[in-house]
Amino acid sequence: MAAKKKNNSYQELLAAMDVLEREKGIKKDVIIDALTDALANAYKKNYDDNNARVEVVIDDQTGAFKVYAFKKVVEEVSNPIEEISLRDALMVSHGYELGDDLRQEVTPANFGRIAAQTAKNVVLQKLREEERRIVYDKYKRLQDDLVDGEVAREDKRYIYINLGGGVEAAMNKHDQMPNEHYRVHDHVQVYVTRVLEETKGPQVFVSRTAPDLLKRLFEKEVPEISQGIVEIKGIVREAGDRAKVAVFSRDSNVDPVGTCVGPRGSRIQAIVNQLGGENIDIVKYEEDPELFIQNALNPAEVKEVLFDENNGEVEELEQTDENGEARQRVHHGCTVIVPDNQLSLAIGKRGQNVRLAAQLTGYSLDIKPLSELDNLTTDDESDEAVEKFEE
């Protein structure tokens, strides 16, 4: 009767392994490997053989297991747990010699109860690990992409977004839009910035302020971008307030700015609505830096761009890197001349327009009114410039 009950337990273990492999994708041999290691440790712990070399073998057809101990064949035994004398070894088999490992079955009669509990714990642990791995793999694939979620709760550091399937993503303060107020059960679209594999399960971090969130919204709303006809060359944002997006068309018959704006502004308006009214300037990208700078300062009119003579030279910065060495950068700067009545428009509220344009183009921009042109050039250059603007 006891043997029959034991056989049933073995069959139940195999059946559980089959279900996990079929429904959860956890391979049977992975569970068996983990289970044999766990049973070997359980044997050592429960039978005072912590120093013993043991091996547990599980029959993957019947589920039956056996415990084997290994002992070194020696002339004189000093440690009976790890060693066996040559005389005793020869009583087991005449083939043993000094230095061989003797393998003996040592399965305790009452080891079944311990084995059953160990097997249960191993299976549950593997199930938890697999569930964490599935979640990690899913959101790792979604890193740098948009996902939909629902505001779940908030603490001093994060707002937690429920992404479904028992997964909560964390959104830090700097990743939250300053013009938005998040309430429990609010539906939000967020950008997955990082997925970390932690001991307690994967940790997903999301953002509403990342520039690439805006890029993904454009890809969703503008088919020409996802098709590769129109390319986004750069995005800069002051999230919740204003953004500039540089776009380029690979097809001369396609206007990249008009394409992104859409009929009657429908495409850009859909994106603006997703961002709580954030203003978005769509800028045509140009290889010529002068034209690109002019476009980037839109809606201001630009009269002239005067590039610094030392452009391209390496500058030493005051800050040092992690090795204590001075940081360097290549100088890119220019003075931008605008009509006097366009000066405030070019600079923008709190310097926002010129600041975003500088970030987008990679140039340090110094905005000057046309009336100061004489102070910026030589007399000959000034006369030529004034004649040019008076024409």
Number of strands: 17
Beta-strand residue percentage: 25-35%
Mean pLDDT: 85
What is the tally of helical segments?
13
Structure description:
This protein is α+β, with helices and mostly antiparallel strands and 391 residues long. The protein has 13 helices and 17 strands. It has a 5-stranded mixed beta barrel. A hairpin with a 6-residue loop joins strand 1 (53-58) and strand 2 (65-74). It is elongated, with a radius of gyration of 35 Å. The chain starts with a helix and ends with a helix.
Keywords:
single chain, five-stranded mixed barrel, 391 residues, alpha+beta, elongated, 38% helix, disordered C terminus, 30% strand, four-stranded mixed sheet
Give a short overview:
The protein is of the alpha+beta class. It has helices at 2-24, 28-46, 86-92, 111-141, 211-221, 223-226, 256-261, 266-274, 289-296, 343-347, 352-361, 373-376, 379-390; strands at 53-58, 65-74, 83-85, 101-105, 146-154, 158-164, 167-172, 187-198, 201-207, 230-238, 242-249, 279-284, 304-307, 314-320, 326-330, 333-338, 364-369.
Helices and strands, with pairings:
Blueprint lengths: L1 H23 L3 H19 L6 E6 L6 E10 L8 E3 H7 L8 E5 L5 H31 L4 E9 L3 E7 L2 E6 L14 E12 L2 E7 L3 H11 L1 H4 L3 E9 L3 E8 L6 H6 L4 H9 L4 E6 L4 H8 L7 E4 L6 E7 L5 E5 L2 E6 L4 H5 L4 H10 L2 E6 L3 H4 L2 H12 L1
